[in-house]
Amino acid sequence: MGRCPRSPRAPPAEAVLKEGGAAGLNPRTVTERAGMSRSSFYDYFPSKDDLLVAVAIEAFGRWNESLAEALRDVEPGLQRLRALVETTMRMTGDGEHDLEGHLRQAEFSPARLDDLMVLHDELLRPVTEVTAELGAPARFVPLVHGVLGAGVQAVQHGADPASTAADVVALLESGLPRD
User: Fold this and answer.
1) CA-CA distances (angstroms) from residue 154 to 32, 45, 123, 146?
2) What's the CA gap between 71 and 65, in Å, rounded?
3) For the range 39-45, what are the long-range contacts, defined as Cβ-Cβ under 8 Å and sequence gap of 24 or more?
4) What integer pLDDT is reported at residue 5 of this predicted model?
5) Each residue of 48-72: pLDDT tens digit?
6) Could you count the other beta carbons within 10 Å of the beta carbon of residue 15?
């Protein structure tokens, strides 16, 4: 990936992004929030794209760490499926998935978009692992991801995270083929 340092400036940028979307994110709004001079923005981020990717790195990193922690000591199979779904819905209910919509609205250069896709693909790793643990063919991974995504959308539109998690788990448990 290109130059995109992890910086103490990413958290203020994340707050600006959550409040005003990608259109409201610029060197002035970030440096004002961070309490730094505007010219110093470019010491940390060569471009707005680099800033957005830094925010994504931070957010995706938190998401991955939370999932890894939730799955760490859970037995493979249905137990891990439940933990994955419950954690995903809880984090969504806590607002951890809100940045995704803002990042989707941003216009990235092709190279930075590729960087984000690599990061996003890493987020799918637990879904791939749990699907394999259940003995379902690999072709079911995008379907599991789609059902998770539908649950995330439901929670983002006001559905209760716990009951949505239960619904998603029930759907996946009854619909995935097993060896």
Assistant:
1) 35, 35, 20, 12
2) 10
3) 41/9, 44/5, 44/7, 44/9, 45/4, 45/5, 45/7, 45/9
4) 42
5) 888 888 888 888 888 889 999 999 9
6) 15
Nearest to 97 by CA among 161, 162, 163, 9: 161
Measured CA to CA in angstroms, residue 126 lies from 33, 34, 56, 88 at distances of 35, 34, 18, 11
Please tell me the distance from the alpha carbon of residue 80 to that of residue 97, in angstroms, as a whole number: 20
Q: Record the pTM.
A: 0.81
- 3-state DSSP of 67-88: HHHHHCCCCCCHHHHHHHHHHH
Dist. CA 144–CA 89, nearest whole Å: 14
Residues 52 and 62: their CA atoms lie apart, in Å, by 15
Above 50 in pLDDT, residue 4? no
Task: Report the candidate in 105, 94, 89, 78 with the shortest Cα–Cα distance to residue 149.
Answer: 89
